[in-house]
UniProtKB/TrEMBL annotation:
Pfam families, alphabetized: fn3_PAP, Metallophos, Metallophos_C, Pur_ac_phosph_N
Every Purple acid phosphatase Fn3-like domain range: 52-170
Domain Purple acid phosphatase N-terminal: 179-281
Quaternary organization: Homodimer.
UniProt name for this protein: Purple acid phosphatase
UniProt keyword Secreted, yes or no: yes
Main location: secreted
Organism: Rhynchospora pubera
UniProt keyword annotations, A-Z: Glycoprotein, Hydrolase, Secreted, Signal
GO molecular function: acid phosphatase activity; metal ion binding
Amino acid sequence: MAFYGLILIPLLLLCNILISDAKGSLAQFGEQPLSRIAIHKTEFVLHDSARISVSPVLLGLEGQNSEWVNVEYTYSSPSNDDWIGVFSPADFSKSICEAENTWVEPPLLCTAPIKYQFANYLNADYNITGKGSLRLQLINQREDFSFALFSGGLSKPNLVAVSNKVTFANPKAPLYPRLAQGKFWDEMTVTWTSGYSLNEATPFVEWGPKGESKVQSPAGTITLTRNSMCGSPARTVGWRNPGFIHTSFLKGLWPNMMYTYRMGHRLFNGSIVWSKFYSFKASPYPGQDSLQRVVIFGDLGKAEADRSNEYNDFEPGSLNTTYQVAKDLKNIDMVIHIGDLCYANGYLSQWDQFTAQIEPIASTVPYMVGIGNHERDWPGSGSFYGNLDSGGECGVLAKTMFYSPAENADKFWYSTDFGMFRFCIANTEHDWRPGTEQYNFIEHCLSSVDRQKQPWLIFLAHRVLGYSSADFYGDEGTTGEPMGRESLQDLWQKYKVDIALYGHVHNYERTCPVYENQCVQKGSDHYTGPFNATTHVVVGGGGASLADYTATRAKWSYFRDHDFGFVKLTAFNHSTLLLEYKKSSDGKVYDHFTISRDYRDILACTVGSCPSTTLAF
């Protein structure tokens, strides 16, 4: 079982632990763990009796992008509130902090750590002996690292000791490739991160059919500054240079052919810095009759294999989902992550952690993303909802770190064709109501597909625009976003959308084929014949802490599961589609249904979608 990974190796080692913990206490993903640290209140009280050291000091000597380090520390005045922070760059205490206004002194520290763990973690007698040790995982993030020992807890941190520096052999190496379909079916994009600016090297991708000669395609390069962010913490304590983001377009692919690729940076002395080799399978021709399999989930988030960043709780759902999908990659052709990607919430270091976590998946199959509230929402930024959920990122990181074939990346709605599938991916953080630009996009996406060639029409959005039994919707007296279903249900019915999938609600739920709040057809594990109504599926249990259901169950709610999981769609041919819901804890199927339908069944008249007729001959 070959995982190209940097995260999957520890995942394999921890799999049994993670699965057994799947019902344990849950960290609240709505609160970014790093936000608990009042880093701006730090006092410098460096103490001779405090020591912290890390080994090894040089990582990645054999090309690894991830390694575990040993951290040892002592302190003469230990407390259960003491904690270890991992900082990068290593000279974090030399940052020049700005004062909030001219009447107050600037803080001594203004950079959050990239991860932290309490000193007594797995060191039960630390508060007595003052001695402890940790094993923590580092990934290559373009800069060196240092570790700091703090007393005073997270709310009043006192810096008492700083470690030696640790670095990767090549901190600027090209890393964490993310594949995505381009604007055309025969185009694949490769996006990756490096430490090389255009003043140092020229980025490109070398690629070609497996076993055959290779060509080189240039890559574009962008980066971000603090001023690219909309607010705090992304502009302040959460800011960390995200490096240089490169995207290359591999065009003219042959359908279903296996390709190999690697990223390169040509330095101005003529030498080339290479990534390792990766491979992918090109997309099928639109309408091609073949086995096609797509995994879909929302709200994955990121988690640390070393259990850092989770205070006293540990969230296994994200790692389990990643592990189960990566394990089954030979049977997956594409992944769609419908919003709430990593919950960085303005702490930019977490985007590196996330792209490292999904690298075994995203480097092998197209990893298509939608945008959610935790990527986009910020007051005064043009988002439909004026909350603080993005932590000041206002969509900038999501559209920079991941390519999408959207006409306008700021709006982030798009369609993508994959063989017999047409996917219409909406952006619920922009207005979707009738008369808006997005409403027109949705109708065009649904109406323009040739159902003889692409019979399986799928609508996706982050927030629930259809049906959900989430308790927080119930508290508002609704079953989804206000004006969601009312605005779009006639489109779904008119254009005979087979399935609508959503994230945002952190659980799984499937409806009967439903229209105007009524089951047009009884819920079942198999549907055959003409289209009756759209089946709505909530699949927001990718990894963020689970959401509860309302106490009263609606008649349209056919199957639900309060657990982490994901959906797999399998198109066997133009007549048969299978949806499977799998739990992340074991990868087994817990719900499924099939649709068996011919083209004439799609043409047939049904409620809300009967074309006008005439008696004339």
